[in-house]
Amino acid sequence: MGDREKKSALFEQFARVGKALGSGKRLELVDLLAQGERTVESLANAAGLGLTSASAHLQTLKHAGLVSTRREGTRIHYRLAGDDVARLYSLVRSVAQTHLADVESIRIAYLGLDDSEAAGDDTHEEITREELLARATAGTITVLDVRPRQEYNAAHIPGALSIPLEELSDRLSELPTDREVVAYCRGKYCVLAYEAMAVLRRSGRRATRLNEGMLEWRLANLPMSAEAAAGRTSVELPACRTTGLPAGGRVGFGTESGSRPDR
């Protein structure tokens, strides 16, 4: 039998990851970093944190090996240490929704769902990624990314149009009136696509949303594009060393910073 002290030491190392994720604000930072690289200042602003508090949370994540950094001048940029961290975060959410009764009621309230949506009965409200791929290929829909622009620049569904939610009402003229618009955002718990769908429908457009978001799209190893820093030229993302994503299938991490607090 193995040495009890060594076994305990091993499990304490495993526990470091759980402890690092044992904070709602740190999970929110992981959620943001799953969309792309950000500076400390950008993360603090997006998560509604003070700079000192955000830095402390990020250091906790770094000490647990969940994020890595790079320096650019005086700025520190954070990114997830690997796609396995994004997958772990996704699993934490899934386990919580499956086993914690409070999660579903809070999710429904946060997303502003009506009874049919909450029950999953209204099939006109959302489509699956398989449906999106088929209909986008057929040219029967316009795919709309309503995340902040820096997240779109880091990685997006190929061919998607970027109109951040806060700009949507002023840019409706850029969207067709004779084709259904499918909005998407960060993930299945992101409210932006729900709010975008409401704006689009009030304008008289046919609109629905992707039932997931960029996080789930990424973890499904589906094709993605990014915007090159110079001239914003769309480029395919390189293969992922850690999970074996095919060419064009890796989430890139943008280097822009600054955004309004997210919802």
Task: Please describe what this structure looks like.
The chain is of the alpha/beta class. The protein has 2 domains: 4-81, Arc Repressor Mutant, subunit A (Orthogonal Bundle); 124-236, Oxidized Rhodanese, domain 1, CATH 3.40.250. It contains 12 helices and 10 strands. It has helices at 4-20, 24-33, 40-47, 51-63, 83-99, 101-111, 115-119, 129-138, 149-154, 165-168, 192-202, 214-219, and strands at residues 38-39, 67-72, 75-80, 126-127, 141-145, 161-162, 180-184, 207-210, 225-227, 234-236. Strand 5, helix 9 and strand 6 (161-162) form a beta-alpha-beta unit. The longest helix has 17 residues, at 4-20. The radius of gyration is 19 Å and the shape is globular. The termini are far apart.
- CATH architecture term of the largest domain: 3-Layer(aba) Sandwich
Helix proportion range: 40-55%
Sequence of strands across the biggest β-sheet: 4-8-7-5-6
How many beta-strand segments? 10
Number of structurally distinct domains: 2
Radius of gyration: 19 Å
Instruction: Profile the largest sheet.
Output: 5 strands, parallel
Structural class: alpha/beta
CATH class of the largest domain, named Alpha Beta
